[in-house]
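Collaborator request log, item 7. Partner lab (contact: R.S.) asked for a structural prediction of Transglycosylase SLT domain-containing protein to inform their binding assays.
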Amino acid sequence: MLAFRSLVAVAILSFASPALAARCGGDFNTFIASFSAEAQSAGVSGAVVSQALSGVTLDPAVLSFDRRQRYTFNKSFEQYVATRVGPGRINGGRAMLQRHAALLSRIEQQYGVPRQILVAIWGLETDFGKGDMGKLPVIRTLATLAHDCRRTELFQTELMAALKIVERGDLTLRDLIGAFAGEIGQTQFLPSSYIKYGVDFDGDGRVDLRHSTADVLASTANLLHTNGFKMGASYEEGSANFDAMREWNRAVIYRKTIGYFADQLMGR
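Returned to partner:
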């Protein structure tokens, strides 16, 4: 699901209004030096800034990928869902519902988001954590996109959030690996969403959305709950819950696919 998550990242980011002002374009090293100073002013330690940004280089492949995207779907819902929700994935999702039944019950009680929605998102994004979570260094990816003047302030916000993930001790730089717009982990959170909605549900003192199933599912539930998702109500197109999922993904076809997959998991 990485390519599509990269597409919708731009739509999600378009609602941000950061107050960062490192000058985009021009010399990349000058931009990084300016941003580094801003990061330290924002409370990121000099050690983390130096470790993350010293020697970072522009990634032309990220720019090329970003510039050739088309932010629309050309498939019908029926065509799209047929490529995303097949018998193997449905059976895998049902196995996850059984394996993590106790955990999912706790999450439902705390956040009021049904287990089938969480498992459907998990399956669509990274095949329940077994699929591709991205292979790119998030700091380099976001620094590249922030330096590009098309959406510099938006990606500066994401770069700052990525540094704060490291500062908080949630992930090391070695583990800060993601997709082409900086999405991280088993349900592909952008760094700003990681900071805003991430939950330490396994109680180990950090939010780990790459390795901790408990943190992944609870954080996904927290995002939906915070944006108005209600337990027991319909999540069909046109419902309040369907609208609440816009924070996860603004594309109607993708939210319909989540609902369809969730219903299949429950035998509906």
